[in-house]
Every structure is written in structure tokens, then in C-alpha cells.
């Protein structure tokens, strides 16, 4: 395709503003799929994505419109996948900015717009959902101009749902988004935008060709990974797969090259010709690192192998999460897994539960701490509270911090500020735009991974929006808190907390556990402790009625039978010395309220 006939664009939007629906409409209008095939949303093709309505993996569709080739690149909307968003945006020359006519500009709208501007995009505002009775397109138009500073006088008024404004959007893309630049005769230079595992094709790689040509039979080299591969297919998605003889400069499409694992492909890598390589790689490459870790254990110890297999399978399609085996005195064998963020964690956990039918216990999420040891012991990265060295071996602990931007309607501002303060936040900025406050806070990631997002949503009744990025590690007065049940530490419940928050969290945890652990035949103390010092304590009273009492003490086997019977319906219990803790207790205890 000649360069001047190509337009590459993505759609940026806050979650739920209608990105996927609009993408589907564009595909439908340009004839990529029949009405019947359109029945389900096409771009979000994983089951969970559909159910949650969240785009996780970037996908691209080639659209034909009035003699032009339009490549629509879907980008993930959530902060956990910020780097994938950034790479997808780097592959385009323009973006549709979709804003909900009833909601207006939100935190992720802004975060995405700024990224888009950084990539020098031509941005076309689209005011969506104008069919809604609550739509206020003129107010939203003004917001786009005032808050973002974009000219919105030609913003398309659209309804992705009812199909209003779709042709105008397509025409604006052709008229306003610049065509890509590139040199067909230069050495091949293409960006690896995304990759996924397909059971029939193997690993499929989404690429944006900058210079040169990609063809079947070509030896290619991944410049960052340093590996070479033989291309065996080139093509595009409409969204059905279609093979093409080649991919030229400016084009977006896929290749396959007999690659076995997604882990061999790194998003942002530069693909070049192995025989005639480009002089330098594309800028901006970074390896994604997990930022949140937790342990995943099978409820039933017999499921360990099944868990191992399932995790390995999931990893085939998602190289951004990591796992290694872990043993816990309390929970037995499991895996320590690393994720890009909390949503990423939830998605993986949910897929394991649902697609692989596993019952899991998840330990408290933890961030990556940097430890400096005393006596020149060097530096240590800590992913698991259980590995925390003795306190007197630690010179300093550093924890990751983020900068968060929150949008919230005025009436919820007070409680949101309090939430941020309670989580050790440092307020950086507070301004008003329309009827809403824009707050910027620096926060320790440690305080955010628990339930910050849930709290934010519930305090603001869903109206607050939130976006963040990491700003590096800072020293903090952090300690490891152990939870002891019947005087035995439960390793799965130990956590690293700020000293100032330890007592409150410890007390809370003990109170929770008191309600969650069923009574036993004896009294059970529950304690929170830092080192040898108990900072909170509760006691579960003994059961008054002993089911074995009527056995007159004599008949041991009968006694045992009764106790066994009592055990039934307690299958999901974990034994701690002599105390059984139901799985629900773990989950509930780990969810800080
Ligand atoms: P993520 O993929 O989660 O980022 O969301 P999204 O931005 O892709 O939103 P999606 O297309 O899934 O739409 C969110 C909700 O808004 C869905 O329930 C859609 O049916 C609805 N919706 C989308 N466009 C319109 C519209 O023009 N009018 C109305 N009334 N509803 C719409």
C-alpha cells in the first residue's frame, strides 16, 4: 500500500466511555464483518475481557474506507498496562479521543491524551453516547477545550450504540490524520507492538513497519533479544486473519516466525533483517517488570500439579507475569507470582479459577522493597514478606512510590482527601475543573495495592477516577508484622507495614480473624506482633459444648469418628497446629476494610 493511502490510529478513552463499541461500529461500517459476526464485541476477544468489558491485549484491525487503508489499533485502557499502551500509541500517527457525553473528561482520558500528545499524534475528539438522556455534548466540548486544551469545535457528536456519526469519524480520519512516513529501500526496521499465543499459528506478533519490507522467508532479528527467526507468514486482521504477500513501510500487521513462547518476544523490541540489519534500534524500549507480588496456593494440596500446568499455560500468552515455586508452612506448595498491577493480578487469578477450575488461596499482595543490609551486606530486593531478614541486619528499607491523579466530584472531596492522608499520601496539587476536583498525590504503592481503588470507588459512589505512575523508591519506616494463631505464626498472613499503621492494621486483622475462625474446643489467642512484641490481641472463646463429651472418655475410635464427622464440610480448612482456619478467613482477612 502506498504511504499516502495509509492511516494508523488508535482510540483512547477512559474506561467505559465506549471505545470497544465504537471500534466494533467502525469495523461493521467498513464491512469487515457481517451483521451476524458482529453479535459479540470483536476486539476484546478473551472471555474475561468481554465479561469485564476491559481491553487487555492490544489488537489491530485493518479497515478499508474510500480507497484508504485504515489501521485501527485497540489499546488497553488500564494503568497496569501503561507500557503496552505507550507502545501501541507509538505505532500510530493519530488517535480518536472518545469522551462520554454524560461523564466528561476523566483521569484516564487525560493520562492517555498526554501520552498521545507525547507521540505527536493528531487527536480527533469524539463525543460519544449522545443518545443518552443525560448527554451534555456542549458541556463536554467545553471540557475538552478547557481541561485538555484541544480544539473541539469539529468534535464528532456520535453514538457508537445507535451508529450516529460513524461515517464522519471515518472521513475525519482520512482528512486529518497524517499518513505514515517511511523508506521502502532502507534496511528493515519494525516495532514489535504485541504478541500472543494462537493454538494454530503459534506465537503471533503484531508489528508496525517503519522502514523496509517484511516478507515470508526472510531471516529477521530481534535487536533487544538478540535472536533470529524465519518469517513464515505475513498478514493482517480484518478482524479475521488474512495473509498478505508482504508488509511495507507504514503498515501494521502480523507475522509468525515459528516462535514457541510469547516470552521470547518483548513488546517494544525492534525487528530488523538479519542479513541487512538497521544501524540502530528504535528508541524507548524497556523491559516490563512486575510491581505487585503475591502467593497463589491451591486450596486442595492435590491440585498443585494442576496449578503448575495452568500457570504455565497462562504464561504462554502473557509474558508480563512471573512465577516461581514457593513453600509456606501454612499453605504448603504454591507459587510466588509477579504482576504489573492489581488488576493484572485479579485477571490472572480469575482465569485460573474460572478457566482452569482451581480453588486458590491468595496471600496479601506485596510490592518490591529495596533493602540495604548492615555491615556492608549489600542490597536486596524483597518480593515476599516471608523472606524479610532479621531487623537488626537491615540498615534501610526503601519502598516504591507513585504519583496519583484523582478526579472527583466536589461533594466527595473531603473523604477522598482523608483516604489519601490515611494512606500516607503527600498532597501535591488541588485544582477545580468544572464541578470536579483534580487532586495530585504522592502515595506509597504499598498503601495502594491493598484496596485503595475499591475504597476510592465506594467513597465516591463510582464517580472518582484514578490514574498513576511510579516515581521511584523512597526510604520508609517499615516493619514486618506477624499474625499468630494459637501462638503459631501464620506465614501467609505476615505483611510489611509502615510502623505508624502497624497497630491499627494488626488490631483490625485480629478482630477479623476472631470473627472468621470458628470456635474450637479450646481457647485460641490471636495476636499481631512485630518481632517479639505483641501489638494487638484477641481471643476466641472455647466451644461450650464438646461433641465428644458424651463419649465418656473411653472409646477412642468412636471419639475419632465423631471428630471426623465434624470435619466434613470443613474441607477447605487449613490446619494450624491444632487450629483449623477456613479459606474464607484468609481471603476476608487479607481484604483490609
Ligand atoms: P473498556 O474496554 O473497559 O476500556 O471500555 P470501553 O471504553 O471499550 O467501553 P465499551 O465500548 O465496552 O462501552 C461501555 C458501555 O457503554 C457499554 O455498556 C456500552 O454498551 C455502552 N456504550 C458505548 N457506546 C455507547 C453509546 O453511544 N451510547 C450508549 N447509550 N451507550 C454506549
Automatic annotation (TrEMBL):
Q: Name one Pfam family in it.
A: GTP_EFTU_D2
Provide the coiled-coil residue spans.
none
User: What is the protein's species of origin?
Assistant: Sphingomonas colocasiae
Known EC number: 3.6.5.n1
Q: Where does the chain bind GTP?
A: 16-21, 128-131
Q: Which domain of life is it from?
A: Bacteria
Which InterPro entries does the entry mention?
A: EF-4, EFG_II, EFG_III/V, EFG_V-like, EFTu-like_2, G_TR_CS, LepA_C_sf, LepA_CTD
User: Which GO molecular function annotations are given, in alphabetical order?
Assistant: hydrolase activity; translation elongation factor activity
Q: What does this protein do?
A: Required for accurate and efficient protein synthesis under certain stress conditions. May act as a fidelity factor of the translation reaction, by catalyzing a one-codon backward translocation of tRNAs on improperly translocated ribosomes. Back-translocation proceeds from a post-translocation (POST) complex to a pre-translocation (PRE) complex, thus giving elongation factor G a second chance to translocate the tRNAs correctly. Binds to ribosomes in a GTP-dependent manner.
Q: Which UniProt keywords apply?
A: Cell membrane, Elongation factor, GTP-binding, Hydrolase, Membrane, Nucleotide-binding, Protein biosynthesis
Domain called Tr-type G: residue spans: 4-181
Which of the seven top EC classes does this enzyme belong to?
Answer: hydrolase
What taxonomic classification does the UniProt entry list for its organism? Bacteria, Pseudomonadati, Pseudomonadota, Alphaproteobacteria, Sphingomonadales
Task: Specify the protein's topology with respect to the membrane.
Answer: Peripheral membrane protein
Name of the protein described by the UniProt record: Elongation factor 4
